[in-house]
Q: What sequence folds into this?
């Protein structure tokens, strides 16, 4: 079965979405990520969407669901690399992704996750 | 206004929705749309193609490249023979859904295009036409 790979780095999980996902593939990713967070006790999830040419309401909902489930499992989620045209369209569509934190690129996203991990440890 | 090119695809699965996105992207590029306008048209097409699958029991999308004097545009017509929509005003409202979605598909798609027409009758299917001009 077709799957999006999930990489583990330290106590974070990294996902880079490189294909135009059909809806079932997006649902599979959501389930896989939730399971991996629980299994690995990851503290952070970084999702790179720089290759995505659109984010419609279904993919937007998937991102919001992942962030919500990760948060319940005590992990923080950062979505990185959203293209400007995608951001403009998403807001006009009516989706502002509340609860999903974003960063411009992977490096800034990892910084954000690192900061959160530390602040929670104290 | 002249239709300079036309094509039609059937849509019955989530893989078909991805194929429609790809096709609409190609046609948007050919119509000379900017990157932002391409993205809006593809996103609107994705929402409406998904509605065909989720609520219409499958359907078809017709693509029409338009030429109106100096203006170029792209019209997409989504048709199904599903149960139809009882209250169109309600269906267009953000947050309203009879399925598991966010209720942004129809209203959101309308905001992403220049022209939006919907015809639906209970028991007689639904037809949504959207147009974007360059």
A:
């Amino acid at each position: 079965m077709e799957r999006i790979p999930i990489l583990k780095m330290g106590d974070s999980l990294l996902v880079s979405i490189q294909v135009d996902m059909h809806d079932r593939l997006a649902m599979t990713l959501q389930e896989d990520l939730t399971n991996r967070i629980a299994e690995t006790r990851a503290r952070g999830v970084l999702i790179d969407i720089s290759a995505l040419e659109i984010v419609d309401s279904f993919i937007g909902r998937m991102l919001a669901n992942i962030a919500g489930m990760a948060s319940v499992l005590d992990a923080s989620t950062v979505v990185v690399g959203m293209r400007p045209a995608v951001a403009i369209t998403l807001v006009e569509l009516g989706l502002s992704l509340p609860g999903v934190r974003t960063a411009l690129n992977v490096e800034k996203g990892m910084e954000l996750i690192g900061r959160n991990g530390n602040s929670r440890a104290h | 206004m002249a239709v300079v090119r036309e094509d039609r695809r059937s849509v019955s699965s989530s893989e078909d929705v991805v194929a429609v996105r790809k096709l609409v992207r190609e046609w948007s590029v050919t119509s000379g749309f900017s990157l932002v306008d391409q993205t809006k048209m593809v996103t609107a097409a994705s929402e409406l193609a998904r509605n065909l699958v989720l609520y219409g029991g499958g359907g078809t999308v017709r693509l029409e490249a338009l030429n109106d004097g100096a203006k170029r545009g792209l019209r997409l017509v989504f048709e199904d023979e599903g149960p139809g929509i009882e209250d169109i005003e309600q269906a267009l409202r953000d947050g309203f859904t009879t399925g598991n979605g966010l209720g942004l598909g129809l209203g959101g798609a309308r905001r992403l295009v220049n022209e939006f027409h919907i015809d639906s009758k209970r028991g007689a299917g639904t037809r949504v036409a959207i147009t974007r001009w360059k």
In short: The domain at 6-121 of chain A is CATH 3.30.750.24 (Transcription Regulator spoIIAA).
